[in-house]
Specification:
The structure is a homodimer.
Chain A: E1 3-7, H1 11-22, E2 28-32, H2 36-44, E3 50-51, H3 55-59, E4 64-67, H4 74-81, E5 90-93, H5 99-109, E6 116-117, E7 119-121, E8 142-145, H6 153-165, E9 169-172, H7 175-201, H8 206-212, H9 215-220, H10 228-237, H11 239-261, H12 265-290
Parallel strand pairs in A: 1-2, 1-4, 2-3, 4-5, 5-6, 8-9
Antiparallel strand pairs in A: 7-8
GO molecular function (chains A, B): NAD+ binding; prephenate dehydrogenase (NAD+) activity; prephenate dehydrogenase (NADP+) activity
Domain Prephenate/arogenate dehydrogenase (chains A, B): 2-290
Protein name (chains A, B): Prephenate dehydrogenase/arogenate dehydrogenase family protein
Chain lengths: 301, 301
């Protein structure tokens, strides 16, 4: 019987547990975390079978452990698990940054770091906590694994298999590649959205401005509704890659500002058109990937 | 019998026509425009009753004219209408910028400018053309009117009444106020979204980046799917206000970059939290405004 430990039974950890349960793939799921209230609620909702009161209890005979707590806590959590880490146990995580998680894992686990396989499921919802957890959160979504040179192939496969059971598609990146990619397509947009709303909110006529903000503004700033604590941690954890992307974007904006100041219509239109084209190609590729394959009407031919 | 002329029978003009028709408020709707194909399609869809072949024919006996063509064409269109502009006819527009429209109207109409009431319905959809037009597009949405000192109160009221018939709520701003407000909450976000997608699309590893872009990126960049020609025109038409907002935003980003470079967690969190708070207050205010009033359970008391 497989024993799975979830550290942090919120949206991410809870949905992983529910996905495994829905597939009948988890023998016994144990929750561990700082919030006794969240653990009790997760138990009530049938997300976990047992709320552990100590790492020692939770880790006894564990096959797989998922850390689904804020990335800044990774080192402290791993340090608390280490004394109880049995040889067969594989630990993974769900953090939005990977280089810092790897550094924390190396520092905390030392030569046991081969038992830690870094990961990042690319899925989320606007709501949080155990009540937000759903079994289908990862279905059809990517989970990035960023294995360490120390990881055995079997360890990586154990983690990949669990995510596949939840319906996720496994992608492999190095921690550095991961952080550079997500700095560009996730961390920078969050910073830009927060910055815009904060900028507007601080203007003396903010009320007038918000009164006329419409659906375009709502979509553009949706990610500024995300948890400030979580995104502070992500920004700091991925600081160098994020600074690099921010500098590239500032250079782009400065260039575009000069074109606008010069009333250079063709240059503005070329930038806008390139963006529209690239975005359309991207959304079409997503839609094609999400569409079920057409039935084969000439099977056998 | 009221005669309404729609110049540009796409999403905006077509939905205005359908809104009036749905309320039984338009006796006869005439379409005018550069595209014979769009006019024929609008006729086929029952958006207009007649496709005019000349401004002269369209303007004969007209009560109300809506310009729903790209703002850069306003001057040329008004000049073509002027020789046929009867004393009872009121002309309005649906352009996303107002200072430039007012300047074009003054130049084209001279002392007949009192017959032109500038306007801007705050509504849209991702699709365009007559096929995208729907009678409910403006229901519950704001329409900003930016009247001129020369406009008679009756002229303004005629335009306001037509928009109210389509279900819109009338707001009044000066052209300058209008342009400053929309530079901040609409034009700048469009420029930022276009700039981000263009920036990513031009990187050598763009394909890798787009592969990991998820729902947050999709929402943030949705407005970069808008028409490049239209947004080139809006950017140029509202250049000065847009430059002002862009400079404020660049200063904000530069400040935030310094905080990030200094790993100043509390400052980042304060900015993010202020944005989250302001956005939540805004969305709650919108939802409250859109919710029908609770039934009065103690009427008479």
């Amino acid at each position: 019987m497989t024993k799975v430990v979830i550290v942090g039974v919120g949206l991410i950890g809870g949905s992983f547990a529910l996905g495994l349960k829905a597939a009948g793939a988890a023998g016994h799921i144990v929750g561990l975390g700082r919030s006794a209230q969240a653990l009790a609620r997760a138990r009530e909702l049938g997300i976990i079978d047992e709320a552990a009161t100590s790492p020692q209890e939770a880790m006894r005979g564990a096959d797989l452990v998922l850390l689904a707590a804020p990335v800044a806590q990774t080192g402290a959590i791993l340090a608390s698990l280490l004394p109880h880490l049995e040889p067969q146990t594989i630990v993974t995580d769900a953090g939005s940054t990977k280089s810092d998680v790897v550094a924390a894992a190396r520092a905390a686990l030392g030569d046991r770091v081969h038992q830690f396989v870094p990961g990042h499921p690319i899925a989320g919802r606007e709501s949080n906590g155990p009540d937000a957890a759903i079994p289908d959160l990862y279905r059809g979504k990517k989970t990035v694994l960023a294995p360490l040179p120390e990881n055995a192939a079997e360890a990586v496969e154990k983690v990949a298999a669990a995510w596949r059971t939840c319906g996720a598609i496994i992608h492999m990146l190095t921690p550095q590649e991961h952080d550079k990619v997500f700095a560009a397509v996730s961390h920078l947009p969050h910073l830009l959205a927060y910055a815009l709303v904060d900028d507007i909110a601080n203007k003396p006529h903010a009320d007038l401005l918000f009164q006329y903000a419409a659906s375009g503004f709502r979509d553009f700033t949706r990610i500024a509704g995300s948890s400030p604590e979580m995104w502070r941690d992500i920004s700091l954890a991925n600081r160098d890659a994020l600074l690099g992307e921010l500098d590239a974007y500032l250079a782009q904006l400065t260039h575009l500002r000069a074109r606008l100041a010069a009333s250079d219509g063709p240059a503005l239109e070329a930038t806008y058109a390139n963006a529209q084209r690239a975005r359309r190609a991207w959304t079409e590729a997503i839609e094609a990937a999400e569409k079920p394959p057409a039935p084969d009407q000439e099977s056998g031919k």
